[in-house]
Every structure is written in structure tokens, then in C-alpha cells.
Specification:
Layout: H1 13-38, H2 43-77, E1 81-87, E2 93-97, E3 107-110, E4 117-125, E5 134-135
Antiparallel strand pairs: 1-2, 1-4, 3-4, 4-5
Bound molecules: zinc ion (ZN).
């Protein structure tokens, strides 16, 4: 085994243990398969163990793909959420980063133009890729 494999950030220690165990079991199954085919010449047992090995490796590959997909979707979710604040009186519009506790129709700070209390008009996620704005509520 090479040490060159760079550890992915999305990998939890539990995942690594599962992957190692599954890999170990698959290798053991292939070993038993080879042993059955060569030493005891039991084709049925050999193919049975080979099947377990293949299944283990397939599961492992599937799991790795799933993990990669999940970390990818997480990085998409980490995108900026913006809050639009609107003054009901003069129509002044202000855009700022979403802050914890923000909700639509919540009273915001005073309007810099007319000093009237402004209100949160919309909260949306800023999507840089094509799909456009997505309303949260
Ligand atoms: Zn105003």
C-alpha cells in the first residue's frame, strides 16, 4: 500500500474504519477464493468467496462515491445567504449578509434616509452557478 493517498476532508474516522474493514474482508474473501480454487479445487466455494470479495469492493466503491457526493453538496450549501432589508416608507433597499435570527417581516435597523424602521423583505441564497436565486421561506 502506498502512503500517497491524501486524506479527504469529508472523511470521518468512522468512515475510514468501515472502509478499512470492508477492504480487509474483501481481500480475505479473495484470498479464501484463491485458496479454495487452487488448494482444495472447490470451484463452488471458490466462486462463493470471490463473489463476497466482489460485493465488498462494489460496496466500498459505492460508499466512496456517496461520500464524495455528500462533501460536494455540503460545499454547495456553504454558499452565502443574503438578506434584503426594505424601507416601507421611502423604498430604500439594503442588502447584507444573512445574520442569525433573520426572518422575513422582522424589524431591522433604522433607514439611513428617513430614519423609519426598515423590514426584512427577503432572504435568499446567493447561488453563483446558473440556477438563480432560491428563496428560503
Ligand atoms: Zn426610508
Amino acid at each position: 500500500m502506498s502512503k500517497a493517498d491524501s486524506p479527504s476532508k469529508g472523511f470521518s474516522s468512522i468512515m475510514i474504519i468501515i472502509v478499512i474493514v470492508a477492504l480487509g474482508l474483501s481481500i480475505a474473501a479473495f484470498f479464501f477464493a484463491a485458496n479454495a480454487l487452487i488448494v482444495t479445487q472447490d470451484v463452488i466455494q471458490g466462486s462463493y468467496f470471490a463473489l463476497i470479495g466482489i460485493m465488498g469492493l462494489t460496496l466500498l466503491t459505492y460508499m466512496l462515491i456517496q461520500t464524495r457526493k455528500r462533501t460536494l453538496s455540503l460545499s454547495i450549501q456553504a454558499q452565502k445567504v443574503a438578506t434584503t432589508i426594505l424601507c416601507q416608507k421611502c423604498g430604500f433597499k439594503n442588502l447584507r449578509d444573512f445574520q442569525r435570527g433573520d426572518f422575513i417581516f422582522k424589524e431591522a435597523e433604522g433607514c439611513p434616509k428617513c430614519n423609519e424602521k426598515m423590514m426584512i423583505a427577503s432572504i435568499y441564497r446567493e447561488v453563483k452557478k446558473k440556477k438563480g436565486k432560491k428563496e428560503l421561506s
